[in-house]
Amino acid sequence: MKVRQVKLREIHKSASSAGKPSFCSVVWDQQGFHSVTASSSDASIAVHNALISSCPPKLLRNHRDGVTALAMSPNATCLASGSVDHSVKLYKFPSGDFETNITRFTLPIRALAFNKSGTLLAAAGDDEGIKLINTVDGTISKVLKVHKGPVTGLGFDPQSEYMASIDSTGTVIYWELQSGSILHTLKAVAPNSGLDLSVLNVLSWSPDGRLLAVPGVRNDVVLYDKDTAEKLFTLRGEHTQPICALAWSPNGKYLATSSLDKQVLIWDVDRKQDIGRHKFDERITSLAWKPIDNVLAVIDCMGRYGVWEAVIPSSMKSPTEDVPNQSNNGLLLFDEDEVEGQESSTSGSLSDLGEDTYEELKPLSRKRLSKQSDALKELDEDDNDDFSLSPKVESHKKARRHHNESTDNGNEGIRSRLPSARSKIQEAFQPGATPVQPGKRRFLCYNMLGAITTIEYEGYSHIEIDFHDTSRGPRVPSMTDHFGFTMASLNENGSVFANPSKGEKNMSTLMYRPFTSWANNSEWSMRLEGEEVKVVALGTTWVAAVTSLNFIRIFTVGGLQTHVLSLDGPVVTASGFKDELAIVTHASDCLPSNEQVLEFRVLNMTNSSQPLRGRLPLTPGSSLTWFGFSEEGKLSSCDSKGVLRVFTSEYGGSWFPLFSACKDKKPDENYWVVGLNARQLFCIVCKSPDLYPQVVPKPVLTLLNFSIPLASSDLGAEALENAFILNNMHLIEIQKQIEEMDAAGLDTSSLDDEAFKLETGQDQCILRLIGSCCHGDKLERATELVKHLSLEKSVRGAIKIVTSLKLPNLAERFNSILEERLLTENKPLQTTFPNSSSTEKSRLSGNDIPLPAPKLSAPMFLKKARTQEAIVGTEKTQEKQTPAVNDLEQSKTTERESAAAEVNNAAGDMNKDRPSKPFLKRTNSQDIEKDEVDKVKAHRPSNPFKKSVK
Predict the structure, then answer these.
(1) Using one digit for the tens of pLDDT, what is the confidence trace for 404-458?
(2) For 90, how many CA atoms within 13 A lie in the half-sphere containing its CB?
(3) Model pTM?
(4) Contact 767/902 with Cβ under 8 angstroms?
(5) Cα–Cα distances in angstroms (integers) from residue 473 to residues 232, 466, 542, 759, in the given order
């Protein structure tokens, strides 16, 4: 059985410095956008954003003592919490705004649960009673007192017909909700947890409501029938101590269990056997399956929280497949208008609510009472004055028939008041910025040039700007920030800062600070009324800010406002490079599969044009984490799944995946992207669960070679295929540059040399691929590869390789291809060129040889020569063709060793050392690879691939 690694990080402090164990809880919302954690040793509740995991959790600090229980309403509009301070509180969700103290006990709370519609909240604790609370008006409908010990677990069945409860003595009781009567009592069927408050007995209904899972007394799980409470079967495996936590998968096929032995087991319920296991350092006190993914959230008794991904192997049925169809009848407990219009004082101090005097409840607002009382009237079939705990118990067939009739009659009922099930769109973010961390320095900007950091101190912030290479940028003095800037952008000329709006008196501010200027007061700032800056970007001569009103505000570096443009969707991020501004916006709401729909556009500030626009691809289930330009100006993006894409003009404009972290990174590592150049990705490696770097200690930049997400090769030559594709991309780009420079009448000599070096390296890669194909008996593929060779010497080398491997038929084919190319190349060389000063370009592949991908066949970039010299060279070539071919046939056995040595040398040339200072600019490509160029020059191609000069 494979043991999976799960990293935990401390979210809640354990009781006292001695690290006393605590009972910690975790729950998910219905859409899987947020998880919520709490600890009996911490008075705060942590709300984690699952879409942007790099964001620190939002803390709710309304309890005065440790939080012992959490419950989420079915439609995820309300969060309930119980505490050692004896109170049960309700919060709006996901905003986290405090709503009310719904009830109070005389002793600490231990368990909470919502019913299916969210109209009932069950609460229980050490005083042995269970309160059923009407969440609409805050009244207590019933108090159930039968248990003889603290009630530690509660659960409504999915049909809201029954409720089950369990206490610390191991007794389980079935309750009938309509009457509040006891249906079944199962005494001492679960372990006796005694006085250890960090261990609580729990129970859990299966998603289809047929089974009730309860910890057994033999370190097992016992499954009981819903209607008869009959013991059906047990799950017994490798747990050596009692079970303390349970969680069903969304489809009910799997069950996760945690034990005092610090193990978590995953069970296939149908097969009645465990299929996965993980050993933790401490006891896991709570488990929760993510409703929409193969993910399990866990939290241990020391307050450390983590996420176990890919719990179920991909070869087995997904835990989210075939989820029981249960229409959500949940009430919208807090309507959206009320949440948005709520003043910050609603989450105010405890004294405002009479908490210090232990007053009972704060009445709910009349607005909410009136709306939701109307909703309850539609649910109440008998139209009684008293609140009904649940619809009358009826057979499943009758209930289903009643539901169908209601649907056919067009009766929307309570569903008309349900919140929209749309996924939450991604928030705007600044590339290279890290989240706010109280008391710690963080990055406002980190890019290939330098970094801007800030730390808050006594009401203001201290900002520092540092360049990676001090020789490239001026020394910038630190700055005192009185505005509270949260985002910044940096280039060689200056920096721009912005902060969000903090009320009418603290408007959003945009400030530009140049590094050098002939004027004394060149720094400027703009304040925005009624809107706030979401993202900033910087170019050579311009500054841009994208605001909450979907405006692009463009300024000159001197502060002149030149343009205000409107976007057709909320901004996600933006980046600048020289005279180009790239912006990402939301094209629409999220898809039903929770995928973001993003659009990008590139604006040219010099000629006021929009050269590019289109959809931005993302890996399914991911979000955008970085967006910007490469050092060469290529538009690039990276998503939360670690896929780096670069925009290319091929195929009418496409995004090419250059790197995929899933194949290269270690399980305990995360890559935080900084930038890229033509060959490598620049990133900071963060140890899990951290997703972004800390300012101190200074992060170390790591260079990673591009790794295209290729399919597993049947030759095992993915590295060579990766290099083959990358080299072709670079050759195409250089060819395009040469054509543009040639059309403009510029000298292309330097690019010709660079192209020749690339062709040489590509031929070496192809030769190694041909060798792999021969060893793998893929001779047809080898024939395709030889057609991509650019140099005559390389084709002859391929012939030597296949000859040494005793493949005469393949060697004959290669000879035929060489002869055809030699003959084909003579035709264009015998013509007279109209313009002798232009760069001559001859291709090895002629019209007589069909190539599978003409663009991938690299062109020959030959030096400039006179027309007469070209003709003379051609005549000499024709005279020497026949002996050249004959010499190849005579060297089949004598050149075997030299062919092998040539392939090995080609392999060695492909491995390059990483630069020690990646931020230092390269002065000249010829200087970097001087030795290699010298080797290549000694083996320049003979006629007819190059013209000879007398």
Answers:
(1) 444 444 444 333 333 344 457 899 999 999 988 777 899 999 999 999 999 887 6
(2) 30
(3) 0.52
(4) yes
(5) 74, 9, 19, 36
